[in-house]
Amino acid sequence: MDFDVSQSRDSLPSRSSEDLLDQSLAPTEEILIRVSKLNKYFGDKHVLKDIDFEVHRREVVALIGPSGSGKSTLIRCLNALEKPTSGEVYIHGDRLNPNLSLKQLSVLRRDLGMVFQNFNLFPHMTVIQNVTEAPLLVRKMPKDQAMALGEELLAKVGLSEKRDVYPSRLSGGQKQRVAIARALAMQPRALLFDEPTSALDPELVGEVLKVMKDLAYEGSTMVVVTHEMQFARDVSDRVVFMSDGAIVEQGDPEELFRRPQHKRTQMFLERIMSILP
Ligand code: ADP
Ligand code: MG
């Protein structure tokens, strides 16, 4: 089966095109995130079933699959927002032990910046305060240094002029770009995105994807749960398809989209492609 989405492809080169990409920004052999035999139950509902999963440094992984398949639970287990029932999570070789204290967990969590569907900005803080809060309080960065970093990151996401406004004055796309700047401010080893564009009006999706593409091309390590198949296909190094709590199939985006090996992958792609504009 062949899913041709090429007619709506934008002009970005595939991230793995060697001629277009500085080799130093390609994924490395180094494993940044490793999940081994991960199981998660909510009550007697088996939500993650023996998941083995790795993310290499500088790799962009798109996590796709039907609603309820366990994508959010999996990435929430990576930064200890959920406690696995069994199995192991290693971040840069450090085991995320569920019995660690909150303080120890918060130290490990700094390694992974998280961007949520609903932005989760602090409503009572201005944009620059949102971005500098964690560097100041958690990293204990001197104020002038945190401000400089905050301003640099706001420039990066194209929001320098919104520095002193409150989130309620921003569009959804702008809020999400602030949330990305805030995640970057902790200088994490990797970024986790959980459907970052799903809550946005369609006309605002592009500005957020653009920022994410820039991060990918700069060599950031990213795990992105998304329904944006074009983004998955054009920007990711690897696509992972989950269904019913398990990884059904994964691989090179072009391969997986053109020749999905499993019936469930085929059915999911057929369905999602048919609802694409
Ligand atoms: P996805 O992100 O792929 O849509 P989720 O990881 O959110 O899937 O959910 C996987 C399954 O776990 C779903 O059946 C969902 O209803 C269930 N689930 C998720 N969070 C909880 C929770 N806190 N308590 C009980 N069930 C949950
Ligand atoms: Mg989800």
Written description of the protein model:
This protein has 277 residues and is of the alpha/beta class. The chain has nine helices and ten strands. The strands form two sheets. It has a six-stranded mixed sheet, with helices on both faces. A four-stranded antiparallel sheet has the order 2-1-4-5, with helices on one face. β9 (238-243) and β10 (246-251) form a beta hairpin. α3 crosses α4 (143-156). It is globular, with a radius of gyration of 19 Å. Magnesium ion binds next to α1. Magnesium ion binds at residues 71-72, 194-195.
What fraction of the residues are assigned to beta strands by DSSP? 15-25%
Unreliable residue runs: 1-21
Report the total helices.
Answer: 9
Helix-residue proportion: 25-40%
For the sheet with most strands, the description reads: 6 strands, mixed
Ligands in the model, by name, code or SMILES, are: adenosine-5'-diphosphate, magnesium ion
Instruction: Please give the order of strands in the largest beta sheet.
Output: 6-7-8-3-9-10
Q: Give the overall pLDDT as a whole number.
A: 90
Distance between the termini: 20 Å
**Derived structural class:** alpha/beta
Oligomer: single chain
Rg value:
19 Å
The rough form would be described as globular
Could you give the order of the helices and strands? EEEHEEHEHHHEHEHEEHH
Counted beta strands: 10
Helix and strand arrangement:
Elements lengths: L30 E12 L2 E12 L3 E5 L6 H8 L7 E6 L2 E2 L6 H8 L2 E4 L11 H11 L5 H14 L15 H14 L4 E5 L7 H16 L4 E4 L3 H7 L2 E6 L2 E6 L1 H6 L4 H12 L3
Parallel strand pairs: 3-8, 3-9, 6-7, 7-8
Antiparallel strand pairs: 1-2, 1-4, 4-5, 9-10
Helix pairs in contact: 3-4, 3-5, 4-5, 5-6
The chain binds adenosine-5'-diphosphate and magnesium ion.
Adenosine-5'-diphosphate (ADP) binds next to α1.
